[in-house]
Design goal:
CATH topology of the largest domain: 3-hydroxy-3-methylglutaryl-coenzyme A Reductase, Chain A, domain 2
CATH architecture of the largest domain: Alpha-Beta Complex
Low-confidence stretches: none
Radius of gyration: 26 Å
Strand order of the largest sheet: 3-8-10-9
Mean pLDDT: 96
Helix content: 40-55%
CATH class of the largest domain: Alpha Beta
Bound molecules: (R)-mevalonate
């Protein structure tokens, strides 16, 4: 069913239209949407303002992983995620490393990139001369847009012309390097690029013998110069795991990570586990998880093969496990000043700078990866997963507290199975 002017309908009219066209006028469907409306009118209006055509709110659990020691500070980290075992796994890993020095981090760069993508059908040397001639003018043209950012020690750090004609006929980039302080900087970057592109297009007319066409101007979500490294390490003997000898455990762990470095099928799942931790904090702090995901996966493939983002090694009697990932995060701008829960998250994290948030997020990614590999090489992943899954199944069956107890005791030493659960609860 198509409609013109859907966005102009009121929220109720939108729902009525959906009910009559897709949901057999089932008023139960309206109730489902309405039960998630917030009673606080102003708060609901705030949320409605975030996107076009909102008709309800979609809850995700907002949870806390405590005991994270990151660069000697202790954090209770907010996580927004629907997957049942993730927060438990992060908390367990945080606790495990808390008496072994915790997580240490290092920022290797905070430079962000953006590009003017253009076609030029004249000679490369002529375009190079043109760019050299106008490069300082470009800096001048964008200067007014940089004023505020410069106060925060950000701004455009470099502009270069890159010849891409070997990849695509007539294709060049003008690459801008940015520092965006505590902002993710998307609006800042895109405004600068568009302003500069307009200037370049103007100057090209009548100056260049060939035709210059600006195709598009946009930030890149691939930022290999905005990278953070998180690491945990300990003496192998401190890896006291009930299931196996510490040395054997360390070797098996390193092998598991090596498999993910060499083998793409495993690398994707391995990195997905890392992103469980990263995305959950990125969401809780109002950052753009799609940008983070896209950038992280591109970084994982930077060698030409998609590989694990983490590395593990044994050096003499030391076990060292680390993660390197590009993270372009903001702690001001965007949703950070608007969404009450995002503000709460940032307060809880002691209002970190963007760099500090990079350190926290990377540590969560590493913790999650540690927890996953730990489960995989010991009892298997299903044990922990199923404990939480059992909870969901019990909810689904509307189990009473007694039934819950009975089921938890029954599955304490068995794999959870829905039919078996229904059988023992007589449901
Ligand atoms: C599940 O969400 C994530 C894992 O599959 C990650 C991994 O296999 O490393 C457990």
């Amino acid at each position: 069913m198509q409609i013109n002017g859907f966005s102009k309908l009121s929220k109720n009219e939108k729902i009525t239209w959906l009910l009559s066209n897709y949901l057999n006028n089932n008023e139960e469907s309206r109730k489902i949407l309405e039960q998630y409306w917030n009673n606080d009118k102003a708060l609901q209006e705030l949320h409605d303002g975030f996107v076009e055509n909102p008709i309800s709110n979609f809850y995700l659990p907002y949870a806390i992983a405590p005991n994270f020691i990151i660069d000697q500070e202790v954090y209770a980290v907010p996580m927004v995620i629907e997957e049942s075992s993730v927060v438990a796994a992060a908390s367990k890993a945080a606790k495990f490393w808390s008496d072994k020095g915790g997580f240490t981090t290092e920022i290797t760069g905070t430079t962000k990139l953006g590009h003017i993508h253009l076609l030029y059908n004249g000679t490369t040397s002529e375009l190079i001369d043109f760019f050299r001639k106008y490069r300082s003018d470009i800096f001048q043209v964008i200067a007014p847009l940089e004023e505020n950012m410069k106060k925060r020690k950000g701004g455009v750090k470099d502009i270069n012309l890159i010849d891409k004609t070997s990849q695509l006929k007539d294709y060049y980039q003008i690459e801008f390097k940015f520092e965006t302080a505590n902002a993710m900087g998307a609006n800042f970057i895109n405004s600068i690029l568009e302003e500069a592109a307009e200037f370049i297009q103007q100057k090209a007319r009548g100056t260049l013998s060939g035709e210059l066409q600006i195709v598009m101007s946009i930030l890149s979500n691939y930022n290999p110069e905005c990278v953070v490294k998180a690491e945990v390490s300990c003496n192998i003997s401190a890896l006291t795991i009930p299931e196996m000898d510490a040395g054997e455990y360390a070797r098996k762990f390193v092998t598991a990570v090596q498999i993910a470095r060499e083998e793409t099928y495993r690398a994707v799942t391995h990195n997905k586990g890392i992103m469980n931790g990263i995305d959950a904090v990125v969401l809780a702090t109002g950052n753009d998880f799609r940008a983070i995901e896209a950038g992280a996966h591109a970084y994982a493939a930077r060698s030409g093969q998609y590989r694990s983002l983490s590395q593990a090694k044994i050096e003499e009697d030391k076990f060292i496990f680390s993660l390197e990932v590009p993270l372009t995060l903001g702690t001001i701008g965007g949703l950070t000043g608007l969404h009450p829960l995002v503000k709460f998250s940032l307060n809880l994290l002691q209002n970190p700078s963007a760099e500090k948030l990079m350190r926290i997020v990377a540590s969560l990614g590493l913790a999650q990866n540690f927890a996953a590999i730990n489960s995989l090489i010991t009892g298997g992943i299903q044990k922990g997963h199923m404990k939480m899954h059992l909870n969901n199944l019990l909810q689904l069956l509307q189990a009473t507290p007694d039934e819950r107890q009975k089921a938890i005791a029954y599955f304490a030493d068995k794999k959870v199975n829905f039919n078996e659960l229904k059988r023992i609860l007589d449901k």
